[in-house]
Amino acid sequence: MTASKAAAAAAPQPQTRKRKTLDSFFAVKKKSKAEKQPDNAKIDVSATTTTAAAGAAGAAAAADVAEASGKETEDSNETADGSPAFDVSTIPEDQRAALRLELETIDGSWLAYLSSELTKPYFARLKAFLRAEHDAKKTIFPPPADLYSWTRFCSFPRVRVVVLGQDPYHGPGQAHGLAFSVRPGVRIPPSLLNMYKALERDIPGFVRPTHGYLRGWAEQGVLLLNAALTVEAHKANSHANRGWEELTDAVIKLVNDRAEHVVFMLWGSYAQKKGARVDTKRHLVLKSVHPSPLSASRGFFDAGHFRKANEYLRSHGRSEIDWARLPREEEQ
């Protein structure tokens, strides 16, 4: 499935623009995987309601997920790719309204496994925190529609490589749900620029792109996952230790336990600690310093991770990643 081409999200939006909530986002039927929103859009994390209308809204949201994925069948409890079909009944009816964003925008192949996480106490506390940030009129990145784009651009059965980041970029127009990636038209961040430099050494014929939009990798099975999925504008790590890490730990465990022959790229001490429980007999774990300008010169450029990832995938009968396939958004 292809993300919406709406031009409004392709570039940073003026901070003086009227703030929006997800009320307008959910007022219309979702047309594609990533309905774009202004960068200063707010995350609507409404309190749980017990009304019948809330249950209907949750069921409708789940139906949209199924329709968008095009994979579920009426008489099967599995999708066409073999992963279990998402069953909205796994979400208590009185919680569905509070989880509208998740039901609307997480890909069904991930929802089927992660829906139980959404009803745990830590996730309720996380939503309450985000609600408080919303009420305080703080600007949160990425835009709501892009928060779970890592699930839509890279469905669970497709995962072949996992790259762990820490939290989203906190500047206007940068974050769109994929770790290390920025939208076309946004200056390439220093860490990603160093990743491109490493690729020039690692992959013969690789030509550095003029943009930092990594959707082309995600669609080939590169899971670009941050430990925390939101951040307050201009405040790095401002949403750390609020609950996102528990959800993303569950994502890593899911890939570790249920996927086969995946490459985990753990750059820097934070990523290495987060990925410490990955089964090295089942998967390939590659460790290096972080590509940040502060550390990249201490071994990142010569680590050969991109080449080693493809060698491992090939040796286990899996398709390699075409690291050079990085079209701009309008070229998708």
UniProtKB/TrEMBL annotation:
Family from the record: Belongs to the uracil-DNA glycosylase (UDG) superfamily. UNG family.
Protein name: Uracil-DNA glycosylase
GO terms, molecular function: uracil DNA N-glycosylase activity
One Pfam family of this chain: UDG
NCBIfam families: PRK05254.1-1 (NF003588), PRK05254.1-2 (NF003589), PRK05254.1-4 (NF003591), PRK05254.1-5 (NF003592), ung (TIGR00628)
Domain Uracil-DNA glycosylase-like: 152-313
GO cellular component: mitochondrion; nucleus
UniProt key word Phosphoprotein: no
Gene3D superfamilies to which the protein is assigned, alphabetical: Uracil-DNA glycosylase-like domain
PROSITE patterns referenced in this protein's UniProt entry, alphabetically: U_DNA_GLYCOSYLASE
Coiled coil, from the record: none
CDD domains assigned: UDG-F1-like (cd10027)
Enzyme class: hydrolase
Subcellular location: Mitochondrion; Nucleus
Compositional bias of kind Low complexity: 1-11
Alphabetical GO biological process terms: base-excision repair, AP site formation via deaminated base removal
SMART domains listed in its UniProt record: UDG, UreE_C
Organism expressing this protein natively: Coemansia interrupta
Catalytic activity from the UniProt record: Hydrolyzes single-stranded DNA or mismatched double-stranded DNA and polynucleotides, releasing free uracil
UniProt entry keywords in alphabetical sequence: DNA damage, DNA repair, Glycosidase, Hydrolase, Mitochondrion, Nucleus
Source species taxonomy: Eukaryota, Fungi, Fungi incertae sedis, Zoopagomycota, Kickxellomycotina
InterPro entries linked to this entry: UDG_fam1, Ura-DNA_Glyclase_AS, Uracil-DNA_glycosylase-like, Uracil-DNA_glycosylase-like_sf
Superkingdom classification of source: Eukaryota
